[in-house]
Write a structure and sequence with these properties.
Strand content: over 45%
Radius of gyration: 19 Å
Helix content: 10-25%
Order of helices and strands: HEEEEEEEE
Number of helices: 1
Distance between the termini: 40 Å
Largest sheet: 8 strands, antiparallel
Number of strands: 8
Length: 204
């Protein structure tokens, strides 16, 4: 019973409670976005253990390097994937989303940018991915190169003996990826929009 003497409608959503649950997610995503823009996030940190979606209509980059790596969660659990470094990139748009189970239901938070607002610019983007899908064109590609000798993207090198690949430039249309983490030394988002909702739509 509320102070006004009215009972909440049965079957309705307790929006006040939902807001309290969603608030930490909003704060975390906002802080992450600001951190990316200011280049204060390192490419190595404990991941949440839950992959999120990343998509873009078109990505083009000067410089790409990738090798097999393991992301670690705070509990020490390892998540194998490909560490992908992108040097100087332009994206037509970008979408990042994650679905999180909460006491009031599944909460989806989604970050979008670009599109009509203009291209998204990224320098030294580091993406730790489970997978990556799209139509790609590579320039001056080297596949099977020792990960410790990669030199197309500054700082993106693996351990000696690990499988690696790199290219002088790359263009990918219809980008879709499930990632453990994403950081950028210089991440400029035009038309940034952040949405948190119960049972909302993910990027794909």
């Amino acid at each position: 019973m509320s102070r006004t003497g009215r009972r909440p409608a049965e079957g309705g959503t307790a929006w006040g409670k939902a807001a309290l649950v969603a608030l930490p997610a909003v704060a975390a995503v906002a802080a992450m976005s600001v951190g990316m823009a200011q280049g204060v996030l390192a490419s190595s940190f404990a991941v949440s253990g839950k992959a999120f979606q990343v998509s873009s209509g078109r990505l083009s980059s000067k410089g790409l390097a990738s090798f097999v790596d393991v992301a670690r969660a705070a509990d020490g659990e390892g998540h194998a994937g490909a560490l992908l470094g992108i040097g100087d990139a332009r994206l037509s748009d970008i979408c990042q989303s994650a679905r999180i189970d909460t006491p009031v239901g599944a909460v989806v938070f989604k970050l979008t940018a670009g599109g009509k607002a203009g291209q998204v610019a990224v320098r030294n983007l580091v993406l730790h991915s489970q997978d990556l899908a799209g139509d790609a064109e590579f320039g001056d590609v080297q596949i099977g190169r020792d990960a410790s000798t990669l030199d197309r993207v500054p700082g993106i090198r693996g351990e000696p003996g690990r499988f690696g690949l790199q290219a002088a430039d790359v263009t990918v249309s219809g980008v879709k990826s499930h990632a453990w983490s994403a950081t950028g030394g210089d991440f400029r988002l035009k038309g940034l929009s952040l949405d948190v909702s119960l049972d909302g739509r993910t990027c794909f």
